[in-house]
Amino acid sequence: MEVAPxxxxxxxxxxxxxxxxxxALWLTWPAILSLPSHYFTAGNNLYFYIKTxxxxxxxxxxxxxGYAVQHGMNPFFTPLLYxxxxxxxxxxxxxxxAVLTAVPVTLTLGPVxxxxxxxxxxxxxxxYAGFLLARAFAPGVxxxxxxxxxxxxxxxxxxxxxxxxxxxxxxxxLVFAVVALIYLSRKTSWWFVPITALAFGAxxxxxxxxxLVTVLFGVVWAVVSLIRAEHPLGVxxxxxxxxxxxxxxxLPLILMLRNELSDPNLxxxxxALYTQGYSADLLGLFFPSGRHPFWxxxxxxxxxxxxxxxxxxxxxxxxxxxxxxxGLLGIFWYxxxxxxxxVVAVVAWLFAMGPILxxxxxxxxxxxxxxxxxxxxxxxxxxxxNLFGVLTIMVFTIFAxxxxxxxxxxxxxxxxxxxxxxxxxxxxxELLPPIRTTMTMERAEVYAQIAAREPGVVVxxxxxxxxxxxxxxxxxxxxxxxxxxYVARPPYYPTLLYSxxxxxxxxxxxxxxxxxxxxxxxxxxxxxxxxxxxxVVIEPALTRxxxxxxxxxxxxxxxGNLTPWYDDGRFRxxxxxxxxxxxxxxxxxxxxxxxxEQNETYQWRWSEGVAGFFLVNPTNEEATLTLTIQAKERSxxxxxxxxxxxxxxxxxxxPLHREMRDYHFTIQVPAGMHEFELRTSVTPEEGTPRELxxxxxxxxxx
Length: 702
Known about the structure:
Blueprint: H1 10-27, E1 39-41, H2 54-70, E2 77-78, E3 87-88, H3 96-101, H4 103-109, H5 111-135, H6 142-152, H7 155-162, H8 166-169, H9 172-184, H10 192-204, H11 208-226, H12 232-257, H13 268-277, H14 296-306, H15 312-315, H16 321-334, H17 339-352, E4 356-359, E5 362-367, H18 370-374, H19 389-410, H20 413-430, E6 437-439, H21 445-452, E7 457-461, H22 470-478, H23 494-498, H24 500-506, H25 521-531, E8 533-538, H26 547-557, E9 566-567, E10 572-575, E11 586-589, E12 597-598, E13 603-606, E14 610-617, E15 623-632, E16 639-644, E17 649-655, E18 661-669, E19 672-680, E20 683-684, E21 691-692, E22 695-701
Parallel strand pairs: 7-8
Antiparallel strand pairs: 1-6, 2-3, 4-5, 8-10, 9-10, 11-14, 12-13, 13-22, 14-19, 15-18, 15-22, 16-17, 16-19, 20-21
Helix pairs in contact: 1-5, 2-4, 2-5, 2-22, 4-5, 5-6, 5-9, 5-19, 6-19, 9-10, 9-11, 10-12, 11-17, 16-19, 17-19, 21-22, 24-26
């Protein structure tokens, strides 16, 4: 039988919360001393970069949400990143519950304060949630209190704090949801069902990885709760009703993400490596604290050797030695009685080990159950298997509380006091917070001046390579749209991949003089009229030799002033003409084209079997455009199809003629950028690995 915990007075709960608040201040020290001005990280280049990109990215999340609320915008979609397409934020690490509840702090004290306060509160509430979780099984107050301390101070949890991954630090909602699901199997009152659904909603709108972890726990716990249940039908009905409410809560998320659950810009083999790198080792639960001030270097060297592909940050799932010892002792004493918890712990750890089993850093080749999840629709983006191991840590928390409660019950008070003191000293030594590095959000003067000038897109060069948040930090100051921006899940971004003006300016490349699309002054002016790339800021120390000259050459093609309006030795800033009176539709190439070729008479590109291109309607309304394709037949009877990718609709199918000629198509094009494809058969080119579709000599739109 499960323990039915006695009710505690409100005063007792408040006292416990206060104790966890003190613990949180210690674990996050010295954040409380400089809430609005500094954030703190720890580690070195073996474990994670001191200048973690995730902390400023999360600070940006608070800033953006406050900005959106102030300006009446949807916080779940930002037009300020990945301009002009914008970015769906729900699939990112925006942590909606945290950033929305912290809006008052953000608007009064700033986003850094909101980040620090949220971290402190998360550490406090995770401890309190761990206390409630342990109370569901262990009697008394002391054992559950100790267990909550060990849970929130666990090396895994603190490592996420020091890596700046606030979405994983705020795991209190996961623990609360697990508590609710446990009581759902015991309570006969139906009013508890909506409470459990709300707890799941808090998890879902904190981080969807935590939602997956919650779902796994809910499924396993529901199944084991039905075994030898006194009222199995009632349990099934309560869980069924909860599932229906949870689905309703999930529906808005599904609708927002229905077109976002794929990663077309990254190869599957790379994601396979990423997934394995974020998988726990068989013995990873017992690995040492990786950030300890006394032995961090030795521990991190060990952890690098143990981690798949050396991805320590992603695979690290340590519970802590004191928690593990107490948890194993509790399992020895109570494992048979609470076998359901043991099943949860084992299943969760099997999933945490990812697709292939690793033992002490050695790949065994043995496939693991996580491969089943990867086959489910919509879960191809789930690439952090080790997070399922948090359920195992939580089960250890429960058994640790049971062990402490048993020792208190069976030992003499003096003996128990000595044992508890030893546990406290060992836990204090093991869980000492790391020595942290003080970080600030830089406020460079050039970006402050841009904020005071006329609005326009900022091209912040060099564009980050997705391993730092430099351009996000700058955007908090200038508040203008930027190309790209550091996010957890980079979207498909054709503007920077293919569109000639932003691609070559943003990547500081030489803009070609000729192609099968127009690249003359009028064409570039039309592109600039659409993109409004106004401010180019270059930090020469971060660029390769010759990069700034190439960027200036692109600016010169636009007729821009090559004299910087700002130059402090570190930054140089230029302002480009916007050509707002020269807007016109334009076309640019996508994937599926061979290199540009020319002779004395013609210039052309061979298509592959499927060749993409984009049409841009710069107006705010749907327009009727004429697409012209100049091409000729490669082989007798060659057929070509024109497809609109949005909606996957074939617009035309036509045979090519033997002689070169223009093919005209009238297309209704909504405002903005839209992708199309030319599809045809291919023929291998003799003597080369190329496969040739059609030769296109010109592609234009009017």
